[in-house]
Amino acid sequence: MQFAHRTLRAAAAIAVGLVVVSGGAFAQAPTPPGERQAQRADHRQARQSDRITHGVESNQITGREQARLERQQRHIDGMERRSKADGQVTAREAVRIEHAQDRASRNIFRARHNRRQRGG
Predict the structure, then answer these.
(1) Distances in Å between the alpha carbon of 67 and those of 36, 73, 76?
(2) Cα–Cα–Cα angle for 117, 115, 46, nearest 5°?
(3) 76, 45 in Cβ contact below 8 A?
(4) Are 61 and 112 in contact (CB under 8 A)?
(5) SS3 89
(6) If 61 and its partner were Cys, which of 20, 49, 55, 57 is the partner (CB 3.0–4.6 Å)?
(7) DSSP secondary-structure letter at 100?
(8) What is the per-residue pLDDT across 3-51, written as a single tens digit (0 to 9) for each?
(9) What is the percentage of the chain residues whose pLDDT exceeds 70?
(10) DSSP-assigned letter for residue 43
(11) In terms of residue numbers, what domain contains 62?
(12) In a domain, 23, yes or no
């Protein structure tokens, strides 16, 4: 009985090992760094746009502030579009986009917390 138990345990360990090793074969190919950065920038743009929308809905952002913030978001979208145009986002382009998004994020925060309210 003890021999059968050890054999069963060894067979189970081998099966688990095979599953772990073969799992790597089904993994997706790694995403290139430029593509990862582009996805990250797109996701961040969407979040910042949502922040502007919520600021308008909660009357924290005035109409003039909204226009300025949305213009800034369009500018960043254009930067992304131009950097992706050649099929590759360089590290320098990624840094420029990220800095622009940092500035936009600060501007959104300031607009939402400057105690100016939308009329109405």
Answers:
(1) 30, 10, 14
(2) 75
(3) yes
(4) yes
(5) coil
(6) 55
(7) H
(8) 556 676 766 667 666 665 565 555 677 777 667 877 888 899 999 999 9
(9) 72
(10) H
(11) 48-115
(12) no
Cβ atoms of 89 and 39 within 8 Å: the answer is no
- Cα(68)–Cα(107) distance, integer angstroms: 9
Question: What pLDDT does residue 120 have?
Answer: 56
Kindly state whether residue 64 falls inside one of the protein's structural domains.
yes
Which value, to the nearest 10 degrees, does the dihedral of the CA atoms of residues 40, 107, 55, 113 take?
130
Q: Report CA-CA distances (Å) from 88 to 17, 28, 34, 98.
A: 39, 20, 6, 16
In a domain, 85, yes or no: yes
Number of domains in the chain: 1
34 is a domain residue: no
Whether the CA torsion 67, 72, 75, 81 is positive or negative: it is: negative
